[in-house]
Amino acid sequence: MIGILITTVGISLLTLGLVGASIEVYRQLLSSLVQEQVSALTQQLPSILRPEGSAAAGEAEPASDSTHILVSLIKNLVNTPLWLVIVVIGIVLIYFGLYVMQRQRLRH
Question: Which residue, 93, 88, 86, is CA-closest to 2?
Fold first, then answer.
């Protein structure tokens, strides 16, 4: 019974650490997307005001690429001690809880 409790706490801490790091990455991603849109609007504004001229905005690489997001999540996790400690403690507790459950089964 105690092994199940330890494993559950470990899973909860692992989830908390990953969700916390993901929220920070989402905030950074949202900020960069807003900056890209403001930049694109700023580049298009003179062409709207001038009827004869047309300024074409260049295409930027999307910041919502899944590889970019995963790399940002890992960097954020490694660079933020709070999330890193919570995730590591969660993983350790999961393994310790599984070990305790295995030991309890061998006794019975």
Answer: 93
Residues 72 and 29: their CA atoms lie apart, in Å, by 9
Concatenating the DSSP letter of every residue in 10-43 gives HHHHHHHHHHHHHHHHHHHHHHHHHHHHHHHHHH
Query: In tens digits, what is the pLDDT along the chain, a chain of 108 residues?
Result: 898 999 999 999 999 999 999 998 888 888 888 888 888 777 776 665 644 544 444 445 555 678 888 888 888 888 889 999 999 999 999 999 999 999 988 887
Total residue count of the chain as it appears in this document: 108
Domain boundaries, the chain: 2-53+63-107
Q: Give the C-alpha distances (Å, rounded to integers) separating 102 from 1, 91, 106.
A: 11, 17, 6
